[in-house]
Write a structure and sequence with these properties.
single chain, alpha+beta, UDP-N-acetylmuramoyl-L-alanine:D-glutamate ligase, six-stranded mixed sheet, 39% helix
Length: 162
Amino acid sequence: MHQLTTVDQVHEDGSYLFTAADPYGDPEEIIVVPCAEGVEARAIDADVSTVASCARAAAEFREAGFDRVLASLGGDGVVLATESGALHADALAVDVADTVGAGDALLSGALAAWADGEDDATALRTGVAVATRLVAKAGTSPPALDRLDDLRQRVAVRDVAL
């Protein structure tokens, strides 16, 4: 059972809840939240000042009934909490031109990778690569996604102890 009050609060604060199909066609709910003294801290009253504390908060949030929680740390990367644990992907160094849509780009890259049957680490790398391309470009037109594999291979992903 989902805690609808929490989901409503997160939605009001600008985060996104998606239902996607897993590789077997079963629905999975995935939520992406900014993890910087904001939505997640208010939603579950948790410390999110470090990667480790953000990972613990995302894992706790996931236990409310979500299959996966992506928590963006902006320039400090992204945390993914799943049933099997938590992962952190570093952000890539880039000259940031515009951050509008960065969370959408992160999520769309991860969702596309999962839809292709990729594992969680690859989904994180893909999301970070797509978001990196987006923030490096000013304006509202989509970035070029050629040579994304090269960018994705540069994203470091590691387990985070809960």
